[in-house]
Fold this sequence. Notes:
Blueprint: H1 5-13, H2 31-37, H3 41-49, H4 64-70, H5 74-82, H6 97-104, H7 107-115, H8 130-137, H9 142-150, E1 156-163, E2 169-176, E3 183-189, H10 192-203, H11 209-219, H12 227-237, H13 242-252, H14 257-267, H15 280-293, H16 297-310, H17 316-323, H18 333-341, H19 347-356, H20 362-374, H21 380-387, H22 395-407, H23 413-423, H24 427-434
Antiparallel strand pairs: 1-2, 2-3
Helix pairs in contact: 1-3, 2-3, 2-4, 3-5, 4-5, 4-6, 5-7, 6-7, 6-8, 7-10, 8-10, 10-12, 11-12, 12-14, 13-14, 14-16, 15-16, 16-17, 16-18, 17-18, 18-20, 19-20, 20-22, 22-23, 22-24, 23-24
Amino acid sequence: MIGDIETVGKLLAGGLDPNTPSEGQEDSGLALCAAASRDRTEVVTALLAAGAEVDAREDGGWTALLWAAANGHADAARLLIEAGADVNATNDVGDTPLTLAASRGAPGVVQVLLEAGADHEKYDGDGDTALDVALGWAGVHLESALLDQIEQEGWEYVVARQYAKDGTELITVAGRSPDGEQSEQVQAQRGHAAVATLLEDAAGIHTPVEQLVARALAHRDVDEDAETWWIVADSLGKRADDETYEALTRLCLSEDAREREFGVDAIAQFGFADGEKPYLERTLPLLQKMVTTEGNPQVLRSVLAALGHQGDPRALPYVLDILGRPGHKRTITDPIALADVLPPDHEEGLSLLISMSEDDDSEIRDWATAGLAGLAADTPRIREALAARLSDPDLRTVAEATRGLADRGDERAAQGAGRVLAESDDEYARELVTRP
Length: 436
């Protein structure tokens, strides 16, 4: 039953029982399990709506959630969990969704499972917890380990690399027999260090700072958007203790630019909780000093973002200093940081933020418009800048402008809301313009 959603819909409308196992060679077993194993989220949704049993089992005791976890599919896993899937179910050999996701190296799935209350202490059939599994894979040469699983004499092999949905590198090792009659493929994600960090947090384990920093640095240029880096930085930031903070500030003074960059990223929101910023008075002077002393553009970009996170107007002159430097390349960090520290009556800063809302880059316009919308001030100049974005070709930008005008009681918000609802399928944009 695993075809495109239109075909599946027709079969279900024709009365096909979604819980009837298929008998075909390729798609034998339960349709929900097959859809989950391939991340066919539209098919998963249709099958669940048609009455598919979310925890039904195939041969070997496999449920749809076990398949989704084993193959690193966080979106499918989330849908199944929302439908009531057992996050601690085991197959016949004792694998749990969490141990399978840990073996895969899929931090996206692990995050979904932990948020849903999966038992991180539960053992698999080999007597290992998910953390044991992740640590066993961390540091292993992934390509070689995968090849060892399928290697046969005389076969030809190829290794492919791409990004998984959660941003970690997905490694595929495929083999074929000399006569071409047989083939085999195995996959894993290079996310075991990130998974281990998430599971250590869940278990309340304080891994040494040096070890966590090594994980982050090793994956900085491997992940699509530094996912492991940010998981580690977030883990350290949640500790909110002086010992960790001091270790991170020492990194900010390191001779190594990557260590300085990580140190800044990790202290940027250190100890933040429930609106409290307990390390603000120590962090802000450190960042202000780095604006003067730092010569590496990437580290300076992190300093800019960190200044914005402090949300303190005292950071504004330093933010403007960075933004005004010759050769500075504008990114979305610029409007985010500027808006976060901009006081209501600062005309120079407001002019710069408005200019960013007119940038050629749609993402920069979007974030700058969101920044304008969120300012505490309500002036004709701000309203006109927001109204100018109602005709923007980017509908998220239109939605942000609409929200800002609506919050100020400006009747022109209706124009933007009508346009977004008529032209956009983006859930976030539509929610912005319909929120009370």
